[in-house]
């Protein structure tokens, strides 16, 4: 006799499409002010998006008797990250087992209104399609996860694992000292090491179990200056760098061949 499969305590959670559109409308209205491209002089004010999310969750926050722990993690003025925790029963704040919902960011890439058929800084709803800067990258994700955390607070299911959502600043511009790097180095999300994390951002429109990371490094090739009429006496630094990159690339593909499950 097989044991009966108990339904998940999360199976009864529902999200209201109208509430989603309402919240996303507010977030998209701030997209003009959270464009991120430092080279163009565009520095986002993520606090504008955070304000709408905290307004939504305030009635369910711990200071108002609710279950949600809402914390702004600010390392640069006006550019907070937002951490929201629905506590589980296993362990304390720093030792609990968690499910992390991270990666949804509060900034957007710049939009040129002249290249859009609609106002990119205002949400347009046409049937089941939504248009506006940030609907998929990534304010739409922020709205969905925020409403999930609200739904948890309203339903109040008893969970063993805590659910931790982290909305991050400074994702699009590559700045350091502002966003998730500081959340990690400050120890503010150490509890996520004890569980599964889902990175919720736009990609190729389907779930994936892994993506390429990034590691910055520098290669300096030093040549020897000589007259162009006597090239045999000079050393071409560009050729040196090209040879070195060729060796590095070949060794990389030898050490890290394609995974059998790569699509």
Automatic annotation (TrEMBL):
Transmembrane segments: none
GO terms, molecular function: hydrolase activity; metal ion binding
Name of protein: Peptidase M20 dimerisation domain-containing protein
Ranges where the Peptidase M20 dimerisation domain occurs: 210-251
Keywords, in A-Z order: Hydrolase, Metal-binding
Organism, as annotated: Trieres chinensis (Marine centric diatom)
Segment forming the signal sequence: none
Family matches, as InterPro entries: Bact_exopeptidase_dim_dom, Peptidase_M20, Peptidase_M20_dimer, Peptidase_M20A
